[in-house]
Amino acid sequence: MRMGVARPAGTAPGYPPDRADHARATLSLLEDFVEEKQQLKDTQLAVLNILEDATADRLRAEAAVKATLSILEELGAAQAEIGALNAELEVRVDQRTAELMVANKNLEAFTYSVAHDLRSPLRALSGYSEALAEDYGDRLDDTGRWYADRIQAATERMGKLIDDLLLLAQVSRTDMNTEPVDLSAEVTAITAELHAREPGRAVRFAIHDGVRVIADRSLIRTVLQNLVENAWKFTAKRQDATIEFGGTVAEDARVCCYVRDNGAGFDPEFSSKLFQPFQRLHAVTDFPGTGIGLASVQRIVERHGGRVWAEGAVGHGATFYFTLSPAQAR
After folding, report:
1. What are 156-189's pLDDT values in tens digits?
2. Where in the sequence is the domain holding 154, given as residue range(s)?
3. Is residue 60 one of the residues assigned to a domain?
4. What are the helix (H) ranges across the chain?
5. Are residues 147 and 42 part of one domain?
6. Over the stretch 234-293, which tens digit does the pLDDT of each residue have?
7. Same domain, yes or no: 152 and 241
8. Burial of 302 by CB count in 10 Å (0-12 exposed, 13-18 middle, 19+ buried)?
9. Which of 215, 262, 275, 313 fits a disulfide with 220 by CB distance 3.0 to 4.6 angstroms?
10. Cβ pair 271, 310 in contact under 8 A
11. Is the dihedral of CA 263, 247, 322, 250 positive or negative?
12. How far apart are CA 238 and CA 215, in angstroms?
């Protein structure tokens, strides 16, 4: 009986042991190759996806850049158009401002000329009415004398109106010479003049000390004169008349001054009319005046770079405020 050589376990019949190992190794390599090939394919797909995404992002970025450039071009064109419109507007504003200044100067000159030329016939009218009353008064009946008195009163009122018109024209035309002015001292002098004019009136004045400004002395004196005389006039019917002058705080100026009284006051609904020429909120028979004084106040204050306004109520007095620009207040 022939004895054979035993075959190692796991080897194919007829194959030597080294060939079986080689076959297994080859199969293992093939399996690894297939796996790596699949991994490579997956990597390639991932790279392609990334490239597609990058391409899409690039296209979107290019579109965004084009849109941005288009917007910038439109913005540049719009800015150029706005610049041209602004330049044209500035030219028109300068032209209209110059025309307005010429018109205002012509109007002021016309007002001054008319007011000045009215003086001569007015003086004649006043003189003739006075001669009529003196020379022929005994021949006139009561009605005739009343007419003569009315003519005389009307000419006096017209004379005052002309004076105020000339003052209104003057405050707009006169050159300004600014200097330090003690407003408290000016108001004190004005009150002394009022007391001397009407010594029988018992008016209590409260004048704050140390209110000083940089202003045209003559023009600012006109402001104070008008405001204090108005307070004096509108407190005439009060036994406990009080007039106060002082300084307070305003947001738009370093100095804000006021004149306050406890007189007749006014309806605040019509406060906008106070500073318009010839506008009056009280009857002439109650409180005489031409309606020019406050208009002059407003023009002078505005020439000093400030503003003026009023607060009040009927029967509860009034307060008139005015400010000067920071450059003209100290």
Report:
1. 877 777 777 777 777 777 788 889 999 999 999 9
2. 20-173
3. yes
4. 17-135, 142-173, 183-197, 217-234, 293-303
5. yes
6. 898 888 899 999 988 777 667 789 999 998 888 778 777 888 776 665 555 555 566 778
7. no
8. middle
9. 215
10. yes
11. negative
12. 34
